Amino acid sequence: IAAGAGVQVQEVNRLLAQFEQMQGMMKQMKGGKMAKMMGSLAARGAAKGLGGLFKK
């Protein structure tokens, strides 16, 4: 893959690692864990510094 793309093997490995990390995060969000966590943070007032991201 690296040779065909004209990049170093390390770059391909880094990209794959990032993909796997994001894939894991998406699975967590799909399970509802992330939504519950964000909701509990907002309920505690910890999200005040996020520029009204949680305001409807």
Quick description:
The protein is mainly alpha-helical. It has helices at 2-5, 9-30, 33-44. It is elongated.
Order of helices and strands: HHH
Number of helices: 3
Major sheet attributes: none
Question: SS-based structural class?
Answer: mainly alpha
The pLDDT mean sits at: 78
Distance between the termini: 45 Å
Beta-sheet strand percentage? under 5%
Shape: elongated
Uncertain segments are: none
Can you offer a commentary on this structure?
Helices cover 68% and strands 0% of the residues. It is an all-alpha fold. It has a domain at 1-33.
What's the topology here?
Elements lengths: L1 H4 L3 H22 L2 H12 L12
Descriptive key words:
mainly alpha; elongated; 3 helices; 56 residues; 68% helix
